[in-house]
Design a protein that fits this description.
- The complex is a heterodimer.
- By secondary structure, chain A is an alpha+beta fold.
- Chain A has helices at residues 34-40, 86-90, 93-97, 122-130, and strands spanning 13-14, 19-24, 27-32, 43-47, 54-55, 60-66, 70-74, 79-84, 106-110.
- Chain A has a single domain, classed as OB fold (Dihydrolipoamide Acetyltransferase, E2P).
- In chain A, the strands form two sheets. In chain A, strands 1-2-3-9-8-5 form a six-stranded antiparallel beta sheet. In chain A, strands 4-6-7 form a three-stranded antiparallel beta sheet.
- In chain A, a hairpin with a 3-residue loop joins strand 6 and strand 7.
- Chain B folds into two domains: 86-341, Type I PLP-dependent aspartate aminotransferase-like (Major domain) (Aspartate Aminotransferase, domain 2, 3-Layer(aba) Sandwich); 346-474, Aspartate Aminotransferase, domain 1 (Alpha-Beta Complex).
- Chain B is 36% helix and 11% strand.
- In chain B, helix 2 (85-91) runs antiparallel to helix 10 (328-364) and helix 4 packs parallel to helix 10.
- The longest helix of chain B is centred in the C-terminal third of the chain and has 37 residues, at 328-364.
- Chain B is globular and about 75 Å long.
- The chains are: A alpha+beta, B alpha/beta.
Amino acid sequence: MSDKPITYSPDCKYTETHEWARQEGDLIVVGISDYAQNQLGDIVFVEMPPIGDTVQAGKAFSVIESVKAASDIYAPVSGTVAATNADVVNDPALVNQDAFGAGWLVKIRPSQPGEMDKLLDATAYQQKVEAGELK
Amino acid sequence: MTIVANKPEPIVYELGAPGRVGAVLPECDVPLTPLPAHLTREELPLPQVAEVDVVRHFTRLSQKNYCVDLGIYPLGSCTMKYNPKINEEAAKLDGFTALHPYQDPADAPGALQLMYELQEMLGEICGLPGVTLQPAAGAQGELTGILILHAYHRSRGETQRHKVLVPDSAHGTNPASSAMSGYQVVQVKSDARGNVDLDELRRLADHETVGLMLTNPNTLGLFEEHIREVCQIIHDVGGLVYGDGANLNALVGIARPGDLGIDVLHSNLHKTFAVPHGGGGPGAGAVLVRRDLAQFLPAPVVVKKGKQYAFATPKKSIGRVKSFYGNFLALVRAYVYLRLLGKEHLARVAEDAVINANYLLARLRNTYHAPFGDRRCKHEFVLTGTPFVEKYGVHTLDIAKRIQDYGFHPPTIYFPLTVPECLMIEPTETQSKESLDEFADALLAIAQEAAANPQILKDAPHTAPVTRLDDVKAAREPVLGYHS
């Protein structure tokens, strides 16, 4: 676990289960927040869904494992998996090093417009994390 | 400890010399029949060692090991109690070790009587009269229990039930067992006092609920204060309550899970009932059910007809969950342990386990933050090392590693997941006050070291046979075989 200060990327939306989602063209890029990677500690394994899989907002679509725990990853929005990050499968430490950049997990082609608007913005997410409201 | 204990020990394949053997066999006195060529090979890489090489190798390994016979082993939720040696004596009796699982059960009435009486004793202790001794350990007991829940609902035509509720303070195997059974796992949050959040439970429980998997006392070491209400909420929607009996050590002889409203329970005989575990031998995870669920138990169970004992298949049995009759010699140990305690002394187990845990908590809570320190704990408790992270950059992992330098096994760490930087400590009833004080003194000394010289914690352990292992590299690039 790193003692670096936690960052909250302002151009992402967040779930209460610590995923981030960022619009890139037609797709939504998804990863786990810097806070989440810090809590998990050194990540050793990421299981990716098959491309083309249907995901549903709020439902688990993947598993991430650290030396301390295994956690489900929940989809921030519904849709189909358009791409997965092979670099992270080969080097899970990327999630620890750059959660919002090189450590992205999947790209989702959204099927329900408007779901992004229901997510938390960076300020609201940071407030909830710091108030200890999210586990 | 002797000097050799800290030298690196080669693996057995690296010992010995070509052609060295431990025994010389006599000439074969019957005609040889060669094996077919396709079944033979020239090279067979077995260790080539003499008896003395083997004995010294394993003796040296044992000197590097830590065990309950050396000192406190405070792994939370593992109940690493001292296991009386008389249990081993009984398990070595020829009448038990020479049994063959295929022999006629009528030839082994003593073994059947032991199993029957163990079923009866466990049923009485837990207030749940239907008992199977088959499951090999706790997690298999959970799977067995969930299969019984499944069989129960199916027998009532309620096939719409597909959700298992699991509190976030449950053992990690609970959601795993539910998922393995094909059910959807729904997590239930804890409230501020560490109990199941009743409002959340009411909101989540419905006609699709298979049941609730409840660990009580939970992994925070806290007794569920609303246990009857929790069970009632599940029963009201037609679900069943599965009790994870891994923490039964806090309850034996005091409270019976069946009386609290639990319908199905597993009991880790290798925790509560003094069967060695943690590398010390196979476990046993008896499953206990209320009377009307006994018809679903795995087959066979032992029944008594007049003065005779026999195997029987329950009417709607879910079938076998393990070959033969479970880990029989583990059952022998649990039986001897219970017979020696007797019902007169069983409550002392739970009383002393709870007193020991509360004594340690009282000695530590002003130095280490105890998130639920205002409540009496049961047989175990949790501390958080968060203040040490903030003040000195020292993590719970560093504290746990440093404990080894003081000659103790570390407690469970980073579990439960709901408590950051968690230390989960379970002393068990088999520690004297001196032993508890030595352990508390070590943790208090480590807290002072964290302030004065945090680096000594970060580099720990210093005196163990191996120093800090790279568990991240081991997990990311596992090497699972030996290649010379």
